[in-house]
Amino acid sequence: MSYDNWKLSNPQDDGWTSHEVTSCCGVEERIKHNLCDDSEIYYCSECGEDNYAYEIISQHEYNERSREDAQEWSRDE
């Protein structure tokens, strides 16, 4: 990448800082290798849910969802 392109690039859109997390806990996804059939099992590193119970989202989106949920909770009280 040339210096001009680097200077004009957006790290969020280029994927340099887009850290993907689980939608349930906001942590990284882990992979467990199943030795019986050579498959990979994806799960949340915090709560242990498998990948059918959550989706992978960016850290920024998780922070926004958490903030919105906190605002809803404070309105309900």
Architecture overview:
This protein has 77 residues and is an alpha+beta fold. The chain has one domain. The mean pLDDT is 78. The N and C termini lie far apart (52 Å). A hairpin with a 4-residue loop joins β2 and β3. The chain contains three helices and four strands; from the N terminus they run ααββββα. The strands form two sheets. A two-stranded antiparallel ribbon has the order 1-4. A two-stranded antiparallel sheet has the order 2-3. The relative contact order is 0.17. The chain is flat and about 50 Å long. The longest helix is centred in the last third of the chain and has 18 residues.
Sum this structure up briefly.
The chain is α+β, with helices and mostly antiparallel strands and 77 residues long. The protein is built from three helices and four strands.
Keywords:
4 strands, two-stranded antiparallel sheet, 3 helices, single chain, alpha+beta, 77 residues
Order of neighbouring strands in the sheet with most strands = 1-4
Give the H and E element order.
HHEEEEH
| Uncertain residue ranges | none
How many strands appear in the DSSP assignment?
4
Query: What share of residues is helical?
Result: 25-40%
Mean residue pLDDT: 78
Shape: flat
In percent terms, what proportion of residues is strand? 15-25%
Q: How far is the N terminus from the C terminus?
A: 52 Å
Major sheet characteristics: 2 strands, antiparallel
Give the domain tally: 1
| Radius of gyration using CA atoms only | 17 Å
Q: What is the helix tally?
A: 3
What structural category arises from helix and sheet content?
A: alpha+beta
